[in-house]
Amino acid sequence: MTSTVSAQPAPDTRSAAPERPGGLPPRPHGVRLDEVARSFDSPQGRHDVLRGLDVELGSGEILAVVGPSGCGKSTLLRLVAGLDRPSGGEIRIGATAIRGTDERTAVAFQEPRLLPWRTLEQNVALGLPRGTGKREGRERVRHLLQLVGLEHAAAQRPREVSGGMAQRTSLARALARSPEVLLLDEPFGALDALTRLRMQDLLLEIHAAEPTTVVVVTHDVEEALYLADRVLLLRTLREAGPDAGSLVRTVDVPGSRPRDRADRALAALRVELLAGLGVQAHQPTPTAATPTASTPTAATPTASTPTAATITENLS
Ligand SMILES: Nc1ncnc2c1ncn2[C@@H]1O[C@H](COP(=O)(O)OP(=O)(O)OP(=O)(O)O)[C@@H](O)[C@H]1O
Ligand SMILES: [Mg+2]
């Protein structure tokens, strides 16, 4: 079993991605969701999980998806990965509607799902596109292991490495095909806090080196705001009215990456997103003793801060 989705070649392949001058890698395609819905039938009746999802994801954008457990985040990721079909609406990568798993897409799940009898190097190689030449594949795998800081552990087996190393191997495997769209389902959920922060930075370094359009599902609101250009907050339809859509809010994260984890605009957005998840949190108020107190821009948010301006209410 592998966490990287292998797929049939699609008509609109990476070679069709928009070219860029100066030897830069081609821009990855964006993703578009039009009125996407997914429901499941059971003996108890129809269970609507996703409804009315309209999202346009720009080339190279990082989108984070947050929402309560069971609201359909993994379902959404499976739809974009082509592992499942929407009950309504359509999903496109570039100009092509998704009809099944797709060579341009790779998925990494919460558990690394490495093959225990293979070395880390061999596990990463599993993510290479079919037909990759031996030498080319070896070079690509070596490059990826270097990128995730695992060259020294290439010959080790999963049971011989730490959870963070296994997770980095899983990420390298997902990147092996140079996906245009990288889908991450709580990729750092099982890691300790420090390794998690390092993995977030690693993901951003990789994204800067090899631009990819990313959808990352996370339960961690801070992680979402640190990584993403935009955050989608989803609701559980079971707890909403019959006409409510899945999308509660879209948050445009201000500023550019790399972000300052202590940025007060992010802290304000964090409070708002947590409130959207039903968790009351307080933004720390700067005091004379704290270094931020002397910073004029570090004021408590008001109606004129990016917080209010950047949140699109979509409550129905
Ligand atoms: N194949 C399926 N058949 C029936 N119901 C399903 C199927 N897949 C998902 N569901 C239901 O859809 C709902 C959303 O599941 P999903 O796994 O997408 O939630 P989630 O937001 O990822 O939750 P979590 O944060 O706990 O991972 C759940 O109620 C789940 O039982
Ligand atoms: Mg899930």
Automatic annotation (TrEMBL):
Question: E.C. number, please?
Answer: 3.6.3.-
- Name the residue ranges with Low complexity bias: 282-310
Region described as Disordered: spans on this chain: 1-30, 282-316
Q: Which domain of life is it from?
A: Bacteria
Transmembrane as UniProt keyword: no
Arranged from A to Z, the UniProt key words for this protein are:
ATP-binding, Hydrolase, Nucleotide-binding, Transport
> What PROSITE patterns is this protein classified in?
ABC_TRANSPORTER_2 (PS50893)
Name the top EC class.
hydrolase
Where in the numbering of this chain does the ABC transporter domain appear? 31-261
GO MF terms held by the record: ATP binding; hydrolase activity
- A Pfam family for this UniProt protein? ABC_tran
Keyword Hydrolase (UniProt): yes
**Descriptive protein name:** Sulfonate transport system ATP-binding protein
